[in-house]
Write a structure and sequence with these properties.
The chain is mostly helical.
């Protein structure tokens, strides 16, 4: 009888608890193990943005594309669980995906930084080669008078002036860290410089030996630079 009386009193005491307290306790029991990984989401977003800022779009494009797909999938999983009834809600898959996004983002950023440094070195080397070609062509013009072909000489001088202007533009590209475009422009400039040197050779046979050595150095530079391609991922 005493046991039954004690149980009844406890039940009455429970019924007298505020409804809000009971509701809060119940909701806590249902959702306590399914907290949204908001901090993980923010950290993953920051890691992806850091990789993008490091130049991954240009210097690790394939890795960045894969990373962005992974992040989109993680966000989709996160958002999907937000609309699930709390008693069956689980953010464990979303959290695992977000952790992987952070790890992959660090790798993509490191690859981008490495490839960017390689592209910088390649651009600077090609710029120097183009400078040497133009300097040699200018020396040929100044030390080897062309004689009666004054009109042709004027045209060549104008071409050299235009090439020097483009060379300065290559330097500006390097200053702005646009290394891929800088290397491409410097390579084209180098070929144009060799073409102008050929024109000088045709007008002044005395320069044949010197120009042959220039062309030989250029071909050697091409074979040595063939292995300096910057990967995209």
């Amino acid at each position: 009888m005493a046991i039954r009386y004690g149980f009844v009193m406890k039940w009455r005491g429970f019924r007298q608890l505020p409804i809000t307290f009971v509701a809060t306790a119940l909701m806590g029991a249902l959702t306590g193990c399914a907290q949204p990984p908001i901090e993980q989401l923010a950290a993953a977003k920051k890691a992806v943005e850091s990789a993008q800022a490091a130049g991954a779009a240009e210097y690790a494009s394939e890795g960045l594309a894969k990373l962005e797909r992974e992040f989109a999938l993680a966000k989709e999983e996160f958002t999907g669980q937000e609309h699930v009834f709390s008693i069956v809600q689980s953010f464990s898959d979303a959290e695992e995906l977000l952790i992987k996004v952070r790890e992959d983002a660090r790798q993509v950023e490191a690859t981008a930084v490495q490839n960017k440094e390689m592209a910088k070195a390649a651009a600077q080397a090609m710029e120097q080669e183009a400078k040497q070609i133009l300097a040699s062509a200018k020396r040929f013009m100044s030390h080897r008078p062309i004689g009666p072909a004054r009109a042709s000489r004027t045209i060549i001088e104008q071409e050299l002036s235009g090439l020097e202007k483009r060379l300065r533009a290559v330097g500006q590209l390097i200053e702005h860290e646009d290394y891929l475009d800088a290397e491409m422009q410097a390579r084209i400039l180098k070929e144009n410089g060799l073409a102008v040197s050929e024109q000088i050779q045709q007008l002044s046979p005395k320069t044949t030996g010197v120009l042959s050595r220039v062309r030989q150095r250029s071909r050697q530079g091409k074979s040595e630079g063939a292995g300096n391609h910057v990967p995209s991922s």
